Amino acid sequence: KAKVLRLTQTAPPQQLFKYGMLWLIPCFTGGYGATALNMKRDPLKLKTGEAEFPLTLGRDVSGVVMECGLGVSYFKPGDEVWAAIPPWKQGTLSEFVVASGNEVSFKPKSLSHTEAAALPYVGLTAWSALNQVGGLNQSNCSGKRILILGASGGVGTFAVQLMKAWDAHVTAVCSHDASTLVKKLGADDVVDYRSGNLEEHLKTLPLFDFILDNVGGSTEKWALDLLKKWSGATYVTLVTPFLINMDKLGVADGMLQTGVTVGSKTLKHLLKGVHYRWAFFMPSGPSLDEIAELVDSGKIQPVIDEVFSFSEVPKAFLKLEGGHARGKTVINVISKQ
């Protein structure tokens, strides 16, 4: 059934899509981040406690525009588009999806809906970390040494390709069984994190200009020592305590704790000559436009680990919970691809 959305003058232009193709599912099923997301969904607490459910999961979508709101001027019914829906909205595991016009982009012409559904969420997450937070772009990347920790997952495989498209030197860290895939995507050096002491091995390599950390945990304690000091080198992590702080401490205390944490770490590392940053997924149709150009030029390709039918959604989530994915997991909502 289609989802119906009542618009207000302050709401962004909306469109109704019938995708029925493939959705990707990088979602949290255990309640992680519930405090922050519920605040975004209902900041004035006008809804009852039961209004949160039923909650539709899924973030990525690729399909066909069915209807457009009055404020939508760039798209029309019948257009083939793709998008990543922000986590505070209902998700994409559905035949019909409502999205804001500024979250949507024309699907790359060179990809099927199956392939296109594997890119928006991870692509925008990597784009946020590398470009919007890290400041990297096509004009300043040539020759820079980039280290990507966790290079074989969805974000990592996209990041490797984007950095190579921008002519950077990429060192990728992953497990041995993923090394062939990562090399195929263009990584210059591939390091197996299971073969001995990873920290010591990386210290034998020349210093880096930029580090993207998809792993977190203990890596943050030593990874910044691998950066070139006093050169503008930057460490960006996608593993932050923001949502955990909000869940544990509540909105006010969680935000305060998060601000203190990121502020103190930023200052600490700035005094050592390197930049420390956090990054998050950010929905953006214009960024997807740029990604689509890279895809159609052959510089970025989707990496799909496995495709499931809609009836196999529980099986797909069990697979995700097992970890160690090589690329993305895709849900085929209807048979047409």
Automatic annotation (TrEMBL):
Keywords: Acetylation, Membrane, Mitochondrion, Oxidoreductase, Transit peptide, Transmembrane, Transmembrane helix. The keyword Kinase does not apply. It holds the Pfam family ADH_zinc_N_2. GO terms for cellular component: mitochondrion. Residues 30-331 form the Enoyl reductase (ER) domain. The chain crosses the membrane at residues 20-37. Its main location: mitochondrion. It is found in: Mitochondrion. One of its GO terms (molecular function) is oxidoreductase activity. InterPro entries: ADH-like_N, ER, GroES-like_sf, NAD(P)-bd_dom_sf, Quin_OxRdtase/zeta-crystal_CS, RTN4IP1, YIM1/Zinc_Alcohol_DH_Fams. Belongs to the zinc-containing alcohol dehydrogenase family. Quinone oxidoreductase subfamily. This is Reticulon 4 interacting protein 1.
